[in-house]
């Protein structure tokens, strides 16, 4: 029975993974490296300044990742 408390849920490992983009951050220049053009546009449209990007690079990457993960075209 599917709803039985004795049934263990099995989660498979990822299949056919692809590493598409590698983004880095240069703290000396305050610039991202390898940032796709569409992500650059997202930052500009969101009004996120270079100073904010330099002060919080991981937060910027997390926000972009969240946005792209939740707006994928199916």
From TrEMBL:
GO terms for biological process: actin filament organization. It holds the Pfam family PBD. One of its GO terms (cellular component) is cytoskeleton. Its EC number is 2.7.11.1. GO terms for molecular function: ATP binding; protein serine/threonine kinase activity. It comes from the Eukaryota. It catalyses: L-seryl-[protein] + ATP = O-phospho-L-seryl-[protein] + ADP + H(+); L-threonyl-[protein] + ATP = O-phospho-L-threonyl-[protein] + ADP + H(+). It is found in: Cytoplasm, Cytoskeleton. InterPro entries: CRIB_dom (IPR000095), CRIB_dom_sf (IPR036936), PAK_BD (IPR033923), WAS_C (IPR011026). Keywords: ATP-binding, Cytoplasm, Cytoskeleton, Kinase, Nucleotide-binding, Phosphoprotein, Serine/threonine-protein kinase, Transferase. It is an enzyme of class 2 (transferase). Residues 11-24 form the CRIB domain. Belongs to the protein kinase superfamily. STE Ser/Thr protein kinase family. STE20 subfamily. This is non-specific serine/threonine protein kinase. It comes from Basidiobolus meristosporus CBS 931.73.
């Amino acid at each position: 029975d599917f709803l039985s408390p004795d049934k263990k849920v099995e989660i498979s490992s990822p299949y056919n993974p692809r590493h598409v983009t590698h983004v880095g951050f240069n703290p000396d220049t305050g610039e991202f490296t390898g940032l796709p053009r569409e992500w650059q546009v997202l930052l500009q449209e969101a009004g996120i300044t270079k100073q904010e990007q330099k002060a919080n690079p991981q937060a910027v990457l997390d926000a972009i990742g969240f946005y792209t993960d939740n707006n994928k075209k199916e």
